[in-house]
Amino acid sequence: MAGRGLCEPEPGVTAESGSGPRAAGRGPVSPKLSAPGPRPAAREADNDIGIAPVPLSLYVHIPWCVRKCPYCDFNSHAMRDPVDQMGYVDALLVDLDHELRRQQLPAVRSLFIGGGTPSLFDAAPIGRLLDGIDARIGLAGDVEITLEANPGTAESRRFSGYRAAGVNRLSIGVQSLDDASLQRLGRIHSAGEARDAVAMARAAGFDSLNLDMMYGLPEQTTGAAVTDLRALLELTPEHVSWYQLTLEPNTLFHQRPPRGLPDDDQLGDIMDAGQALLADGGYGHYEVSAYARNGHACRHNLNYWEFGDYLGIGAGAHGKLTAPGGEIVRTAKQRAPLAYLRAVADGAVSTRVEVAHDERALEFMLNALRLNDGVPTDFFTARTGLPLSAIVAPLDDARARGLLHDDRRRLAPTALGQRFLNDLLALFEEA
Ligand SMILES: C[S@@+](CC[C@H](N)C(=O)[O-])C[C@H]1O[C@@H](n2cnc3c(N)ncnc32)[C@H](O)[C@@H]1O
Ligand code: SF4
Fold first, then answer.
1. Within the chain, which residue ranges are assigned CATH 1.10.10.920?
2. Cα 171 to ligand 2 centroid, rounded to whole Å
3. Calpha distance 301→375 (Å, rounded)
4. Alpha-carbon distance 398 to 388, whole Å?
């Protein structure tokens, strides 16, 4: 199964964006985001549609990179001039103020600063951002705070500053530990610099590290992909995001595909060998592309897959919120950094679209079934407001086909369902 960077929540990506029988794209996902919807009513600390309050996360987007990688379709822009970092942080906090004026929200349980390349920012603006967020909405006592770092921008003083500011998890974009592969991917760093970034993170006191690696790279043999992953595991991360390289529309790689991409059979072999290696190393496979040691599953990403709520602030950031009346609203911010800054100044930051009742079951399943252990069955009603009877026919069908476990307490894909996730999800399209 393909799938890739989860850092940037991006509704509108469907289960078809991967390739081959394992394909299922990345997430969190919603089938469409088209017409503007009605505004939600002010929200109390929890909602009245279900069993428990919907947990809340916060995603913060930093849209700049040193340069654009040829495979990347994230909302990231090559930084031509120095960025006014404090000015951008101030805009993020105004953006958050706008969100909080609409509805009251509980303290956030996880915060993810993604990009782009957040590690381009100094520690002082990151500290001001975290303090500002805490003062406005509150951070839960055990909040998980992740920041994405590109090894080409790693600096030990900055890493120590992030840690001191309250960041407690770093996600480092290693991509490969083979210099020739890194060059073919247009990366700004070497394998040595990626190793140094990991060492700096440890020295700065980070005891929770995610490392991103991609496979299925141009001219990469099956053996080389496995060797690459083995080298990554030698760095002993707590969490690994292992993505199949996908050729996304609107990227240079899509326009002119690089030579020597592995075929589906090779990808299947890489996947089987890599998963065995990860399992031997003690990494539990809990989501399509995510592997973690005990207790280190990413709380932030889990909340997306479990159809929790999240605020999204920053250029191009997406959010999903449940209002007290049960409406589910998706928000999106201006993508271009300058347009975003202008919109914040004008007080017109978000587009808001209500998720219709007949879209909710599929949206829920598109997310929940990416999790290998699925979700408790009662999350369905608690987070969509729909009775379970709304999906009883596709559930029965999926169980009869061996794609879903026959366990009434959980909605969880079988190994077959994970392998043919698109077929499983297709059953819920008409629900
Ligand atoms: C926002 S980036 C991570 C942070 C930082 N910008 C960097 O690249 O080091 C999120 C991750 O998505 C993955 N990714 C991006 N584009 C991808 C693609 N086309 N196919 C597969 N994975 C991709 C990469 O592993 C990348 O580290
Ligand atoms: S550094 Fe990361 S976000 Fe920036 S272009 Fe490369 S992959 Fe995309």
1. 358-431
2. 13
3. 14
4. 15
For the domain bounded by 23-304, which CATH number is listed?
3.80.30.20
Q: Which is more confident, 417 or 53?
A: 417
pLDDT of 6 reads 52
Closest ligand by atom to 243 CA: 1
Which of 41-45, 205-209, 332-336, 377-381 comes out lowest in average pLDDT? 41-45
Give the Å distance between the CA of 378 and the centre of ligand 2. Answer: 37
| pLDDT computed for residue 346 by the predictor | 92
Nearest ligand, CA 251: 1
Q: Is the minimum distance from the CB of 242 to ligand 1 under 6 angstroms?
A: no
Answer yes or no: is pLDDT of 242 > 80: yes
How many angstroms is it from 116 CA to the middle of ligand 2? 6
The predicted-structure confidence for 289-313, as pLDDT tens digits, reads as follows 999 999 999 999 999 999 999 999 9
Helix (H) or strand (E) holding 375: strand 375-376
Amino acid (one-letter) located at 414: T
Q: For ligand 2, is residue 5 a contact (CB within 6 Å)? A: no
Does pLDDT of 325 surpass 50? yes
- Residue range 48-54: mean pLDDT, rounded: 58
Query: Hey, what are 223's tokens?
Result: 């053996």
Q: Is 30 in the pocket of ligand 1 (CB under 6 A)?
A: no
Secondary-structure class of domain 358-431 per CATH: mainly alpha
> Minimal CA–CA distance to 346: which of 354, 338, 358?
338
Structure tokens at 391: 């999906």
For the chain, counts of helices (H) and of strands (E): 15, 16
- For the entire predicted model, the pTM comes to 0.90
Task: Give the 3-state secondary structure of residue 319.
Answer: strand
Instruction: Find all residues with CB under 8 Å of 294, minimum gap 6, and list them.
Output: 282, 284
215 residue type, one letter: Y
**Which residues make up the CATH 3.80.30.20 domain(s) of the chain?**
23-304
Confidence of residue 180 (pLDDT cuts 50, 70, 90): very high
Ligand 2 atom closest to residue 150's alpha carbon, by position in its atom list: 1
Residue 150 near ligand 2, beta carbon < 6 Å: yes
Evaluate the CA torsion angle 386, 388, 392, 394 in order and state its sign: positive
Rounded to a whole number, what is the distance in angstroms from the first to the last CA of the chain? 24
